[in-house]
Amino acid sequence: MLIRWAAESDLPAWFALATEMSSLFQHPADIGADPEFISYAHRTVKEYQVLTAVDYMSGNNMGFISISRRQNSIAWFAVWERYRSKGVGSRLLKTALRQLDHTKPITVEIFRDSNTQGIPARNLYKKYGFIETESNLFGPHGVPNCRMTADLSGEKRGGSFHYRFPEFIKAAQKKNCPACNHKPMPDGQIDIFLTDKICVGGEYPGQGRLFGKLYVMPMEHYFHFEDMPEADAAAFMNEVQCVGRALRKVTGAVKINYEMHANSGAHLHIHLFPRYLDDDFPSAPIDYRVNEPAPYESYEEFLWFVEQMRKELSR
After folding, report:
1. CA–centroid distance for 222 within its chain
2. β-strands 106-111, 2-5: how paired?
3. 190 and 121 assigned to the same domain
4. Residues 146 and 6 in one domain
5. How many domains does the chain have?
6. How far is CA 268 from CA 25, 103, 182, 301, in A?
7. Radius of gyration, alpha carbons of the chain
8. Which helix H or strand E contains 260, and what residues bound it?
9. pLDDT for 101-150, tens place per residue?
10. Per-residue pLDDT reduced to its tens digit, 201-227
11. Which residue among 137, 146, 149, 237 has the highest number of C-beta atoms inside a 10 angstrom radius?
């Protein structure tokens, strides 16, 4: 199955699911035909606050979950009956939780434990760290509800689109791109080499604790590599090859790993990870989140590396 943001074209399926769920929610009318719900659905889809699970082969929507970033909560969640007990709800909830603020409590209002229809959902929320924190609530039409709350503050998170999609997709546009608009570089990063075609950047202390880890970025803005014209892609990869050759000469690395991510910075770039006999990831990919202690003996040694790379790339 594919978990993705819901689009306007998915709304009829969401409305149909809401209609099916009306009796479970003890709603006296058809939720899927409720003008207030329809307005809510259109708004939240535009705000990247609704996820859907889609069956790859049939293209059918399997379920929907909506969030409220303002309230830091799960707002609406249901899976079609024929797709239940297949892991759909678990994957939707896990993905939705990533998009909420983990520095604050995350909440959801759900049936009390006396309502047997809510048991599967309650068990799923418990699996993801929710506990009941308030028991005497009433939902729409006087349905007895409770509040469950999760504290996920201990979870390790990065800066990728998995956690901040609206900001990420906005920065993917050239007019908002930090690199294209000459915004300050993130802490620890430094320009090693600049031309009218590429920027080579270094970082301290260095992802993966790898001496000489750097990245190469085209000066022209691209979000998807496949959108780069063939001639530009060939020219860019030739520049990357030159940087890799210089990097291996300066560092003495056995190999260079070339990785194109762009999950955090939406302006396309390639990470160059020098690999050594004694690096921390034998027979494994790099864990970029590991960067301490620094692989350099001192910051002065890092600056020495930068200077050596500049000399090599200037030739």
Report:
1. 19
2. unpaired
3. no
4. yes
5. 2
6. 45, 29, 15, 29
7. 24
8. strand 255-260
9. 999 999 999 988 888 888 899 999 999 999 999 988 887 767 788 999 99
10. 999 999 999 999 999 999 999 999 999
11. 146
229 contact partners, CB below 8 Å, separation of at least 6 = none
Q: Are 208 and 108 part of one and the same domain?
A: no
**Under 8 Å CB-to-CB from 306, ≥6 apart: which residues?**
190, 192, 202
Residues 78 and 107 in one domain: yes
Q: Which whole number is the average pLDDT over 39-54?
A: 97
The domain boundary, picked from 95, 126, 150, lies at 150
For tokens 């990420």, what's the residue? Answer: 168
Are residues 285 and 228 part of one domain?
yes
Question: What does the chain come to in residues?
Answer: 315
Q: In sequence order, what E strands does 69-160 have? A: 73-79, 106-111, 130-138, 144-150
| Angle, helices 11-21/35-46, rounded to nearest 10 degrees | 140
Residues 239 and 125 grouped into a single domain = no
pLDDT computed for residue 233 by the predictor: 97
Residue 196: band (very low, low, confident or very high) from pLDDT cuts 50, 70, 90: very high
Return the C-alpha torsion angle 146, 107, 95, 144, nearest 10. 20
- Residue 158 in any domain: the answer is no
Residue 72 domain-assigned?
yes
Q: Strand 198-203: give its sheet, edge to edge.
A: 189-194, 198-203, 214-218, 270-275, 255-260
Question: What is the reported pTM?
Answer: 0.86
Evaluate whether residue 157 is within a structural domain: no
User: 70 and 194 share a domain?
Assistant: no
Give the list of residues 6+ apart from residue 74 with CB closer than 8 angstroms, or none.
65, 66, 67, 68, 93, 96, 106, 107, 108
Residue 24 has pLDDT above 80, yes or no: no
Q: Which tokens is 251 given? A: 């560092």
